[in-house]
Amino acid sequence: MFWFARVATWRATIWTGPWATRYFVEVSANIDLTRAAVDAWNRNDLDAWLEGADPDIEFRLAGIFPDVDPVYRGREGLARFWQTWHEPWRELRLEIDYIEEREDWVVVEVRYRATGHDGIRADMQLVTAVRFRDGLAVEMIGRSTVQEAWQAIGGLHTA
Fold first, then answer.
1. For residue 140, how many C-alpha atoms fall within 13 Å in the half-sphere facing its CB?
2. For residue range 112-125, what is the model confidence (pLDDT) as tens digits?
3. What separation in angstroms does the CA of 128 have from each of 54, 88, 154, 157?
4. Which domains does the chain have, with CATH numbers?
5. For the whole prediction, is pTM greater than 0.90?
6. Which of 32, 154, 155, 157 sits at 20 to 30 Å (Cα–Cα) from 87?
7. pLDDT attached to residue 20
8. What is the rounded distance in angstroms from the CA atom of residue 94 to the CA atom of residue 111?
9. 54 and 138 in contact (C-beta within 8 Å)?
10. CA–CA distances in Å: residue 59 to residues 49, 89, 101, 128
11. pLDDT band at residue 5 using 50, 70 and 90 as cut-offs
């Protein structure tokens, strides 16, 4: 038996049984897509980041950044957002602190760490609610907190 078949058999054996649901949580496709978008962002790969977006996507920001448009539409709009957001920074990284899915929405809180061309540093929390349809992000809503994000999409986070 090939090694990968043994691993697959072992995984199937380990991840079945009454205790499996307590210790292993299946990650949804939408959470995987969200993580892939964060990975693309961190690799500075605009094309890969846009790949997960519907051509008609709409991104509404929280309005906490005065020099940034409040709404971006379509992949072209997201590309403008990307350029606006990346322009002042020499280094830019996102780290996921929280991610949860309900129905077709994923709420993700990231720690945004950046170093400007002039050496200034930024370290802040940002939250985005992302709605998926057919494997693509169709809507994004930026908010200041996880609770505000759940409220914006009609469901208060209670955990």
1. 29
2. 999 999 999 999 99
3. 16, 21, 14, 14
4. 28-152 (3.10.450.50)
5. no
6. 32
7. 44
8. 6
9. yes
10. 14, 21, 18, 9
11. very low
Which residue in this structure is represented by tokens 């499996």?
A: 20
By CB atoms closer than 10 A (0-12, 13-18, 19+), residue 76 is exposed
Amino acid identity for residue 83 in this structure: Q
pLDDT tens per residue across span 31-82: 999 999 999 999 999 999 999 999 999 999 988 777 889 999 999 999 999 9
What is d(CA 21, CA 59) in angstroms, rounded to the nearest whole number? 35
Task: State how far the alpha carbon of 96 is from the alpha carbons of 56, 72, 80, 93, 102, in Å.
Answer: 26, 23, 23, 10, 17
Can you give the pLDDT at residue 89?
94
DSSP state of 118: T
Q: Where are the alpha helices (DSSP H) in 24-143?
A: 29-42, 46-51, 74-86
State the greatest distance between any 2 C-alpha atoms of the chain, in Å, as a whole number.
61
Task: Provide the terminal-to-terminal Cα distance of the chain, rounded to the nearest Å.
Answer: 45
Residue 87 neighbours by CB distance under 10 Å: 9
The type of residue at 63 is: G
